[in-house]
Give the backbone structure.
Amino acid sequence: MQKLRKQGLVADLWPNIRLMQLSGLFITQYYEDNSTLMRLIRKIYSWITAILVFTQYILLVIWALTESYDADQRAAYSVTILFFTHPLIKFIYFSTKTNRFYRTLSAWNNANSHPLFAESNARHRASTLARMRKLLMYVGSITIFATVAWTVITFIGESVRTVPDPESENGTITIEAPRLMVPAWYPWDVMGGLTYYLTLVYQFYWLFITMSHANLCDILFCSLVLHSCEQLKHLKEIMGPLIELSAALDTQVPNAEALFRVPSSGSKAPLMENEEYDNYNTNYNNYRNNALSTVAGGGGSGPNGLTKKQEILVRSAIKYWVERHKHIVRYVASVSEMYGMALLFHMLITTFTLTLLAYQATKIDGVNVYAFSTIGYLVYTLGQIYTFCIYGNELIDESSSVMEAAYSCSWYDGSEEAKTFVQIVCQQCQKALSVTGAKFFTVSLDLFASVLGAVVTYFMVLIQLN
């Protein structure tokens, strides 16, 4: 058995990855024991989970198709079906796109820091870890609370349902219904006895595992976006010191040696390796070839008496900033590719779900189980898309502010290399980084407002048709 070496994003997201493994998602990597037998056992466990999850969903759909007798019942069953469609889509999507997931997680395995900025990089990584852990804890607590609340509310009030009266053409009667968390058709008796309690346990498991699948995938997406936000903050933070350092190359600077006395200057961490990025490197590569090539051939100690090693350190710091920003751009594109289609389905389904929930909210006539259920659905569904949008909006804001940070620093006191560097940064940062839903929309607070607007429109049409 070989000890698993966790590095980069895998180490940062390890609690989330471990929970995803335990929930039965098809993750074949990140295990210490990769023997043939253990891989087979893990695949069997994942397939059993998939069968249990999809079987209950099919039984729910069968019930909705065969036991819906009026518009209110059809709306209620449709909301339940749409609500649990999210986890199933994410289960299928994640299980079939694991290679994209592995590729995105490995993006930061070799993203080393620069000796002059190691302290800043470490501080922002610690901030990323803290925010990831809080997000996992908060959403995990909400998942547990929602499961328990759903179970408790099942045993409150009467367990009845309305069906057509066989003795009256237009009449209805109320009959006893099995007290289950989710209505579903079963080929066995669920009104009482051992089969009822086994079905109840099965539904509790299904409820918790499906909500866990959806929320763990959502947490993963938000954590990946959060990581890019903190890296952009890191680049903004070192922009000013970087320009000050570059000024020491060809401009007289008082106490130039003090610029190199930073807490992390003794770090032995290697520089980030230069990697090609075909779709985003035209200007950056021209700059690197023309301006930074002086590292190899530049001579002299400059007006501040800098040593050759210090000159190389300054120029390598500029290269570090450029390469790190290119890496973030490539990483954000990978996140969009990994999760974009799932986001598209999530927003489409959520729009219809919220429309039906708005219609159901008009039927609330007091403080009862129906009111709590409808409000619970509504708050939970809104919370899901708001979480996506708030982190997507943060990414847009942070990437947009990079250009402002570059222009606001004292670039006019820097070297010619620094002035060219700032010009290129402003060019490349004119378009903010963002995560898209299969390129149909951008994940931001504007999307949240658009979804609410669409819900209001569809709701008004539904009311008029009704």
Residues 193-250 form the longest helix (58 residues).
